[in-house]
Amino acid sequence: MQVFSSAHRASRFFLSPHLRTAPSLCSGLAQRQVTTDPIHCFLSKAFYSSGVDTVEGTPTEDVKELYRKMLDSVNVQRSMPPNAWLWSMIANCKHHHDIGLLFDVLQNLRRFRLSNLRIHDNFNCNLCREVAKACVHAGALDFGKKALWKHNVYGLTPNIASAHHILLYAKNHNDTKLLVEVMKLLKRNDLPLQPGTADIVFSICYNTDDWELINKYAKRFVKAGVKLRQTSFDTWMKFAAKRGDTESLWKIEKLRSDSMKKHTLETGFSCAKGLLLERKPSDAVAVIQVLNQVWT
Q: Global pTM?
């Protein structure tokens, strides 16, 4: 009996204080694991999948409240929530985690529309555009690019206007890598290029001094039959003149003259600069005189 008592005291002496409190710790873990709060469950998945968690990434209160209400509506009440809740959630997204909750709601709403309401159509283009805009505002470009997928689980209808929001972000940050990614997504998901797309793309290439990239995408726009605006020709011709590439300049001028007769000041001065580069000052003067007559 004395031996047993001594052994018992020794085991208590060598046992770590942290280990002695293990039962209480385990019970706490168990309580946290069985929580049914949808916000906690979603953020736990996001935390372990991304490996990061920041104060800035914490969802805003308005977004969390709308997230709970909409999930309760489809999963408990088995009814479609008011459209105003979804639009309000989109408008209130400020952080990356807000966008994560938004996309989770969209997936739940799409599933509910399919299984309970037998609605196979996606949400309209306007919703996709506002979602993409919210993604850019929150800096959640990874989700923004998902809004351009033709086949997605969120019920989004991708469109070129949505892509423009992301491209404008690339323009503001001189991000050619993002530009290339978006252009690949447009091609892969059969989204038609527009004149406004060319304006943004050309601006990014000019601002980052990427001549090869602007020519690559210019060929793609021309091949797709996109009618380039004067602003696109302004940027493209100014770029060629700045580089001193008169051969490219006259090819671009030929394309421009085929679709529009009147020069802008930018294209006119680019032509004048090209003539000076070719040592034809009298021709350059003549171009300047014509511009002066037209624009004064």
A: 0.81
Phi, psi of 90 (to 5 degrees): -60, -45
Q: How far apart are the C-alpha atoms of 72 and 51, rounded to whole Å?
A: 28
CA distance 127 to 129: 5
CB 91 within 8 A of CB 62: no
Task: Answer whether residue 272 is part of any domain.
Answer: yes
CA distances in angstroms from 162 to 99, 125, 187, 257, listed in the order given? 15, 9, 14, 31
> pLDDT (tens digit, 9 = 90+) per residue, 95-119?
999 999 999 999 999 999 999 889 8
**Contact by Cβ (8 Å): 237, 249:** yes
CA–CA gap between residue 126 and residue 116 (Å, rounded): 24
Alpha-carbon distance of 131 to 148, in angstroms, equals 11
- pLDDT tens profile 19-58: 333 333 333 433 434 445 555 555 544 433 333 334 355 8
* Dist. CA 211–CA 219, nearest whole Å: 13
Question: Rounded to whole angstroms, how far apart are CA atoms 145 and 132?
Answer: 8
Q: Is there a contact between 105 and 148 (Cβ–Cβ < 8 Å)? A: no
Residue with tokens 């998902």: 146
Total of domains in the chain: 2
Q: Quick check: is 94 in a domain?
A: yes
Judge contact between 57 and 50, C-beta under 8 A: no
Residue 87: exposed, middle, or buried by beta-carbon count in 10 A (0-12, 13-18, 19+)? Answer: middle
Domain of residue 111, residue span? 59-157
- H helices within the chain, ranges in order? 2-14, 17-20, 22-33, 38-50, 61-75, 83-92, 96-115, 125-138, 141-146, 160-172, 176-188, 195-207, 211-223, 230-243, 246-259, 265-277, 281-295
